[in-house]
Amino acid sequence: MIGVSSIVFFISMRKIAGISGMVKRLITSSKSSIGDWWPLLFLIGLMLGTLIYSAFYNVEPALRQGYPKELLVASGLLVGIGTYIGNGCTSGHGVCGIGRLSKRSIVATIIFMATAVITVAIMGGVS
Amino acid sequence: MKKTAITKMIIALICGTLFGFGLSMSQMINPDKVQGFLDIFGDWDPTLAWVMGGALLVSVPGFSLLLTKEERAQIKQGDIDTKLITGSALFGIGWGLSGYCPGPAISVSPLIITELMWFLVPLVIGMIVARLMVGKN
Q1: Is residue B103 a contact partner of residue A47, using CB atoms and an 8 Å limit?
Q2: CA nearest B104: which of B27, B39, B10?
Q3: Labelling A12: which of A3, A75, B6, B25 has CA 20 to 30 A away?
Q4: What tens digit of pLDDT does each residue of A72-94 get?
Q5: For residue B106, which of A95, A70, A41 has the smallest C-alpha distance?
Q6: CA nearest B124 in A: which residue?
């Protein structure tokens, strides 16, 4: 479904369905016409998709709460800085970039998977 | 022109909804599950590999049919530079720390907003800081 979504999106918009890229666009690029607000609509759609799913299925077990705040904050900062500098996250590099057989994205995905695995290993797995 | 702008927004909304539904269905919205997937040296839970694998099963043939020659050439030209490497490395560390990456965090945020604010606000701050550091890219 994620793959289909990214393909449909590319066919109709000729754009890559990269989430961090959309957040970046919303924060940094100028929005001169109403059409420039499309990333916001995609992000609203993301929430809508999960809300619709949660109306039919029990998502309670997936909702972790009370995770250490310092870890959440550090994680958010690193994800924000990293995806801005590296130009992409799991969706942009991982799904669309590799889908396009882009060398850049393949390298990026290998690197972020590797550092993520190392980070979890150092943290001693899932506590 | 106005019409295309509205069509664009509707397409974005529909694709986003599909994407979010897929993230929920596949358990990508569960950070414990994501960390379990990343924990290959510990108690490894490989099931999420199917999600990425499944998405690629669609996106690789899909894009190969869709891309024009010019686009292919442009993709090939992309350089692997230090920015790409450092950025991706930092992102991976962040992803491992919480089990959240941008898509799932945003899509699940209406359900546990107080928890997710501690991730999403720093994420936005991080992007602004990065922009100040490296400039617009």
Answers
A1: no
A2: B27
A3: B25
A4: 999 999 999 999 999 999 999 98
A5: A41
A6: A80
| ipTM of the complex, rounded to two decimals | 0.93
Taking a contact as any Cβ pair under 8 Å apart, which residues of chain B between 19 and 78 contact chain A?
A: 19-27, 29-33, 35-36, 38-43, 51-52, 54-60, 62-64, 66-67, 75-76, 78
Give domain limits for chain B.
2-134
Q: Which among B15, B27, B92 is the nearest to A111, CB-wise?
A: B92
Report the distance separating Cα B73 and Cα B39, nearest Å.
37
- Which positions in chain B touch A23 (Cβ < 8 Å)? 102, 106, 123-124, 127
User: In angstroms, rounded to a whole number, what is the distance separating the alpha carbons of residues B15 and A91?
Assistant: 13
- Ordered DSSP codes for B21-77: HHHHHTTTT-HHHHHHHH-TTSS--GGGHHHHHHHHHHHHHHHHHH--HHHHHHHHH
How many Å from the N-terminal Cα to the C-terminal Cα in chain B? Answer: 28
Q: Cα–Cα distance between B90 and B95 in angstroms, integer?
A: 9
- Spans of all domains in chain A: 2-122
